[in-house]
Amino acid sequence: MVTVTKERLHLLYPAFAEQKDFYLGRITAVEKGFLAQFGQKPVRLFSAPGRTEIGGNHTDHQQGCVLAASVDLDVLAAAAPNGTTVVRVLSEGYPLSEVDLSDLSVRKEEENTSEALVRGMAKAMEERGKHIQGFDLYATSNVLKGSGLSSSAAYEVLLGTVMNGLFCDGVFTDVEIAQMGQFAENVYFGKPSGLMDQMASSVGNIVAIDFADKKNPQVRRVDFDFEQTGHCLCIVDSGADHADLTGAYSAIPKEMKDVAGFFGKEVLREVDEEAFFAALPQVRQATGDRAVLRAIHFFADSRRAQQEAEALEQGDFDQFLQLVCQSGRSSFQYLQNISVEGAVAHQEVAVALAVCEKALGGKGAFRVHGGGFAGTIMAFVPQTDVEGFQKTMEERLAPGCCHVLHIRAVGGVEIWMGE
């Protein structure tokens, strides 16, 4: 388990030197919030970041490849054992929640709640031979909800990092904590998510993930210093709401699996790409053209995610930017997760992409971010142009829609502030 000292807080927050008072003040506020609520000390500090999907749009559910990264927005918490079997959590802005760990069974009434994640993480660690006891936790988060930065995965990784630090002597690896987070989300929270979100948050920096073996995905940390590229990551809210889009999202994996089923396979990763193109007339007739186009996107974007990782490892940032743009065009043209089917008057994501392209003026890179249809887009913007880019996006879309982020060097960590 990684521990970050006060002197190395720039690993969590790349803008720490410029905003030192803000970050130290946030840490102090968390400590004070804990003491005000629970009245005990000493406390220990923990942080888990949000994540961004860089490459591999809708490829993980077909056991493809993705490229993801942690960002400098996080869930920050103070925690300490309380000598009971009860976990007490106060997240800023929410009521106090309590979970008694003497019963770790799945509870239907806890689905879609933070209590389910606490119980699920404790159960996952118990199955790995570690007994988790009660603790108190005060948390605050600036991970943007509904932005595709995965606040739920950050919370799962935070819980895993806290439990690992307080009761397990840090024995669990970042990958194991991510897997436990997925277990808690799938089994206890009731959401059948993949592993990309948790892995990016837990491992940190940039991670290339190959889901060929879904039980044991291959995770490779891509050591690349984004700060040296002279670019920032911007997340832009399109203004479209995710509500009532379940059908649009679920149609993507269904149609991809329909194509795989034509070849007697479960997912597209198991289908030979050349065999797919050779049988294209028959596949079109059996599954429909949109399913075929989405399969074409999968084959190319899964491969592209690997190429993006290789470009970064070779220091070829220009090639990386080109691949990001290619991924975005493929999502628009083939995956078709930009506008909701039948939408005419409201195509917010498409408009946001068009405004972004003009604002960049041929520099940087941009693409849809996450699931699509609504939510956000992402852009890599030269640092010299960030102020103007943000101003343009907010003038032409909405005030406050553009968030300037940085790639964070580490995932879930304990913070040691010294005496």
Detailed description of the structure:
This protein is α+β, with helices and mostly antiparallel strands. It folds into two domains: 3-228 and 408-416, Ribosomal Protein S5, domain 2 (2-Layer Sandwich), CATH 3.30.230; 231-405, Alpha-Beta Plaits. Helices cover 41% and strands 21% of the residues. It contains twelve helices and 13 strands. The strands form two sheets. Strands 1, 2, 3, 4, 5, 6, 7, 8 and 13 form a nine-stranded mixed beta sheet that branches. A four-stranded antiparallel beta sheet has the order 10-11-9-12. Helix 2 (114-127) packs across helix 4, helix 4 packs antiparallel against helix 5 (196-203) and helix 8 packs across helix 9. The longest helix is centred in the last third of the chain and has 25 residues, at 289-313. It is globular.
Topology of helices and strands:
Elements: E1 3-5, H1 20-38, E2 44-55, E3 65-81, E4 86-91, E5 97-100, H2 114-127, E6 135-141, H3 151-167, H4 174-189, H5 196-203, E7 206-210, E8 218-222, E9 231-237, H6 246-262, H7 273-278, H8 280-287, H9 289-313, H10 317-335, H11 348-360, E10 365-369, E11 376-382, H12 386-396, E12 402-405, E13 413-416
Parallel strand pairs: 1-13, 4-6
Antiparallel strand pairs: 2-3, 2-13, 3-6, 3-7, 4-5, 7-8, 9-11, 9-12, 10-11
Helix pairs in contact: 2-3, 2-4, 3-4, 3-5, 4-5, 6-9, 8-9, 9-10, 11-12
